[in-house]
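Exercise 7.
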Amino acid sequence: MLAAFLLLVTAVDVEIIETDIPPDGWPTNWPRATERYTEPALAPFYLPWRYTGTGVRAARPSPILLRAGVTDTLPAGRYRLLLRARGGARVLLDGKELASLPAPTRILDGHNAVRHDALELGLTRRVAAGDREKLCEVVLDGKPHRWELQVRVGGLIGKSRLRLELGETLVALAPVGSNDFFLLGERIALTDDAWDEYAGRVLQSHDERESSRRREAMAAHADALRERRRQDRLWLAAHPAPAVPRPTPGLPAFNEVDHFLNPGIAAALANRHDLTLIDFQRDIRPLFEKHCLACHDKKPRGGLRLTARKDAMAGGDSGPALVVGKPNHSELFKRLNDPDPNRRMPPGGRELTQADKKLIEKWIAQGVDWPDTPRVTLSRLPESLEPLAFLRRVHLDLVGTAPTLNEIYAFKGDRRAVVDRLLQDPRHTDAWLPYWQDVLAENPNLINPTLNNGGPFRWWLRDVLRDNKPWDLAVRELAMLDGDPHGGGTAGFGMAAQNDAPMAARVGIMVKAFLAVEMKCARCHDAPYHAVKQADLFHRLAGCRAAVA
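Solution. The predicted structure, written as tokens, is:
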């Protein structure tokens, strides 16, 4: 039956109005629109994102008005008209109101009684939770008419702010006596399957449009970015990078990073561990760090330092702490077992277990093996992956799924080409988004915030990955804490609920993520075992927007 109504129609014009909005009702003279776009049908269910000048998601004011109109021609006859919306809405025909929905009067947050007032419209797509609907009749004469949908989005109920959400806002018609409702504009049947196909198409269109807007914003700041990079190059020129080591015989190198890693690998391979010996890095060093270094590190008590083998062998005020092969002559071991509690180490009744003492005794007896780096048991380097194993692993790593049969058949052995292709694959964004959520400690709780809950800046992260935004620009945007804190802007990163120094916590996360430096202890004090001081943390904090705003 829908085929009878497939007449040529124009696109639906949509306007968003953000200024001069009356506190309730509708304006007599409509203010100037702040944004215009088109939709295929009179069903503006998606509210496009607003962006800052640099392309970060920004907050819209609340409330706003949305007005959508289309000139459409339908065969003469009597129709049932369905208006569906989440906020206040009305539909007009040639400027005359046909149906309206009042603004909501209560918060639909799950604490009220569940309503069962959906209209019974047969096989039509049922109204979604939180949306409301109104049904009326209209008589058409077969001529072109101007249909207009006006929607009030957001606002306040008492002191509670409504979200800027449209729900499944739409206008649909069906001939009297039929439940075959269809949308105005493009003829979309109001069924689950047809709506899902239409909604997916509209969301894809908006996604592409918003990507274009972000690229335009980035291009508008290209000169400023080039100037910052010029200054960065000047700084780098004044602080030369270390020279790349020469190739290491017997070890492959595919990039400069490999040249830095290979000497350490070669040294570890040449110093493979005898499994019969106590491993200092694994077994002894943790005991020293837990029980000894608080007193025997940079400010050694009794003149004894236990940070290096030569210092321990030299000893302190009581002589050498370690005597190779002779535990009972080693002052360190004797102090661990001293019957006098005033001389026994560690002090304060924190005596080592018998198992730990036996471990240290055996380590001294075996010769006080104290390498600077952990011993390894690797006997050979792993072989290069065979082609299909590589293809499977690189797919799982970059896009999160195994390769399809078509991708397997298309693989010609060019590994670099596969990596380049997968980095451009849209799936790469969603596969790597969880990693960056973890690294940057995204922890939103939109209902009842608890310790360190912030905003959902995952949407900014998604935009960064999808647009392949340069990381120097992305880090700057993150530090500037811009946009909508609750809608996906980087301002959400600056939030940390119930934290006494939220910005210090966030700067520590950034430095750890991008510089691999731990600054957690420096939040409160100058840690005795860290090179990073509290002043270093707060110097970096001063560069963030919220710290100087």
